Amino acid sequence: MTAAELDEIILLLNREHGYDFSNYSMASFKRRVLRVMSLNRITNFYDFKYAVINDKKFVAHFVQEITVNVTEMFRDPLFFSKLRDKVLPLLASYPTIKVWHAGCSTGEEVYSMAILLHEMGLLQRCRIYATDINQAAIDKAKKGIIDVRLIKEYTQNYIKAGGKNDFSAYYTARYDNAIIKKELRESIVFSQHNLVVDGAFNEFQLICCRNVLIYFNRTLQNHVLNLFYNSLSPLGFLALGIKESLLFTTAKDRFTVIDNTAKIYRRKV
Amino acid sequence: MIETKKIIAIGGSAGSLTVVLNLLQNLSPNFIIPIVIILHRLKNIPSEMDKIVSITRGDLKLKEPDDKEPILAGYIYIAPANYHLLVEADGTFSLDYSEPVQYSRPSIDVSFESIAHIYGPNATAVLLSGANNDGTAGITEIIAKGGTALVQNPELSEYPVMPAAAIRKNPTALICSPDEISKYIEKLNPF
Predict the structure, then answer these.
(1) Do B67 and A247 touch (CB under 8 A)?
(2) Mutate to test the interface with A, among B97, B101, B112, B114 (most CBs of A within 10 A)
(3) Per-residue model confidence as pLDDT tens for chain B (191 residues)
(4) SS3 of B146, please?
(5) DSSP assignments along A211-234, one per residue
(6) Interface probe with A: pick from B36, B45, B67, most Cβ of A within 10 Å
(7) Minimal Cα distance from A220: which residue of B?
(8) How far is CA A160 from CA A74, A156, A163, A258, in A?
(9) If I label A208, which of A164, A234, B22, B23 is the partner at 20 to 30 A Cα–Cα?
């Protein structure tokens, strides 16, 4: 697929269906498009274009598949241990702690965060909002069901992150699945939110948005970071993915660096 | 800053680290073409960066790029663990956390293909020792877009499977010893 063909698809998706992918990172967007084509056995550009224009069901499927929903519990254990040591103690002084997990995908990281908050004795005072553009991912996240084969790896991550309990205290295993404990599931409000077009909806003490900005170009990254800035209380915390940086964005002067390896930042007053 | 339109991508798996280290060791001090190194490694191990930094010369400018970091002349970039490394048309890196490709993330195929699309004939890709099939599709794309492909001679590779697979599929790739790879790369430098 040429760059011009890709531009044409982006234009059509916006004009015909209102989805704006024009400021996504083109390198990975192109890979995702080729992946959707191959999943659907579409071998040429004209068939693809026809489906994008005429097939509403295909477009819905396309939008779902274009977003990356790869995640795991306690991914980057180092990040979670830094969060526990450097951020959560400071949040303890708020009577109500509001947390926004933006781009939560199927929920693994937000459940990890809820476990941390529980272990710090803060979960009762927290309101955790978890959002994603992809409704199917949200539906899955709400269920809190994990493939039991992944539990071993998640347990190792949890221990590396400095987990204090027995990880098995947080789920119930049933045949091939493990279901996250009800108390944890009920501590999180899941809803759909599109970072590209939707605005601020509350004021938070902590926003966690890891490995979402990598799929956006610098223009859209700046836009989303502005949204985060406006959604944080003064001195609120922002956590990005460990290879995401404010350094190449216009937001860099509006935050102080709390931890450069774990990519934890704090909004200036 | 000195401008260069060229780029060199090196992909390696099992048995490639020594070759990479030697290559870096012999690089001339004024080498300015950016080099991107994609090595397979274990998950959730913070980085092999430190190891490479401690073994190689102190004057080399080594970096593990963050997302959207500009690609600069004179730098050697190492793909971060657990992400695919891509390049954008505006001369920056992009990272991608989608599914592993051929069980690998970073995937050599993904980086080579992305570099082929953006750099075309200005790209040189080098595929080293390894025990899987990553890199073959990437080498094909590099050649298709007019770039140059070098593959380590399987007979001189600790693990021949990966280079052998690439050669089978890409008969026009240049088959080189580690020494020849070093010399070829050095000749690309404008100085």
Answers:
(1) no
(2) B97
(3) 445 699 999 999 988 988 999 999 999 999 999 999 999 875 544 556 667 777 778 888 999 999 999 999 999 999 998 899 999 999 999 999 998 998 899 999 999 999 999 999 999 999 999 999 999 999 999 999 999 999 999 999 999 999 999 999 999 999 999 999 999 999 999 88
(4) coil
(5) SSGGGB-HHHHHHHHHHHHHHEEE
(6) B67
(7) B68
(8) 9, 6, 7, 21
(9) A164
User: Which residues in B lie closer than 8 A to residue A30 (C-beta atoms)?
Assistant: 117
The shortest C-alpha distance from B155 to chain A (Å) reads 34
Q: N- to C-terminal Cα distance for chain B?
A: 15
ipTM of the complex: 0.89
Is A215 within 8 Å of A31 (Cβ atoms)?
A: no
* Residues, chain A: 269
Report the distance separating Cα A233 and Cα A267, nearest Å: 8
Task: Return the structure tokens found at A133.
Answer: 């553009």
Could you identify the residue written with the tokens 């009577």?
A95
